[in-house]
Amino acid sequence: MDIQLQKDFNRLRLFYFIYFSSVGCFWPYITLFFKKLNFTGQQIGLLTAIGPLVMLLAQPVWGVINDKAKSGSRILRVVCLCAILVCLSFMIPKGFMFFFILMGLFSFLSYSIIPLADTITIYRLRGTDINYGQVRAWGSFGFCVLAVIVGQLGDLSVLGNLYRWLHPGLSPEISLSLKGIPFLFLAYALMMGWVFYLTYQLPVVPKSSRAGKDFSKLFDLIKDKRFVYFLAGVFLLQMSLNTNVSFFSLYLDHLKGSTGLLGWCMTLAALGEIPVFLYATKIFSRFKPLHLLVIAALTGALRWYLYTVVSNLYLVLLLQPMHAINFGCYYLGAVHFVDEESPREWKTTGQTIFWAVGYGLSAITGNLVGGFIFQHYGIIRMYQFGSVIAMGAALTFFTLDSIFPRQNKIS
What we know:
By secondary structure, the chain is mostly helical. The protein has helices at about 5-25, 30-35, 40-70, 70-90, 95-125, 130-155, 155-165, 170-180, 185-200, 215-225, 225-255, 260-280, 280-285, 290-310, 315-320, 325-340, 345-375, 380-405.
């Protein structure tokens, strides 16, 4: 490995480590924050659904901006600064509409960071012996480290007293219930300040034109029944995953778990991703993408079912490594399946469609339905529902080849 490549590799690893550290300060705790502010289950569902909706609408906008801009790093700097300002606004205790707007703004900014960073990373690693997973694994490691640290910070009652002093109009019950959770947004802002600094050290990606020209092949992909059937499985499995991401903190709260324990749960779950990303090449030498998808969906169905019967917090903690299979195998399998099925010049668009369904439509539906079930039937019923739809996803992936055999008509 030459010296410049080694420097860029280290800078990219540090960038992902710090960025996902900031993620560990915000997303695991945001629904718990809303619950402590006495928002209803349906309101929390709406607040968490706005993010995927904004992502679905904003993705083409960021794509155009990235294509037109001279430097992706410059866009990242602007996004980081705006994200810092918006996140700090979460420390102001206001009503539902205030946070609804904030979640929309924050999602518009935060969902753009990784696609922009991935573009830079993949370009720099192209033609080298380093794969994307070796860089992305450091993001999981960063998430693990900060999720534990800020989880302990969120349990500090003295910070709840400080928050009440900063906002005297807030009721004592709410401020004491929140403890240090609002200050996790300050931790996010500090980490994003570091990310802003690191953007000055990222490799430069020259502008290029890689868009496909043969639209007939794009329409072939969209109309392909095999691909649509695959997307149906993605919708179901990702729906259960997104619901868990949004409501797991409320599940732990239901079991009287602390934010510190939530941090440890997030850490164990993310730790499992690291070997999956690092050994992706070896995994695919033994399993086909559809095999990984079936395994991931069955693991998800079992995982959500176990959540409904386990009441011991330490047993819940021991279940978290299942995330490595439930999410890790799903993500690897889905991305590679899309790559295999998409025409050469429309592979990026194929991945965009996958993201739109899995992280857009499915996330919106999962958060809204999850919020409804949580409010009217409770968190246990919500996970029972998640287990059923994950099993439906497993059945979809398992029967895909028999119902719609692969044909080498898309090249």
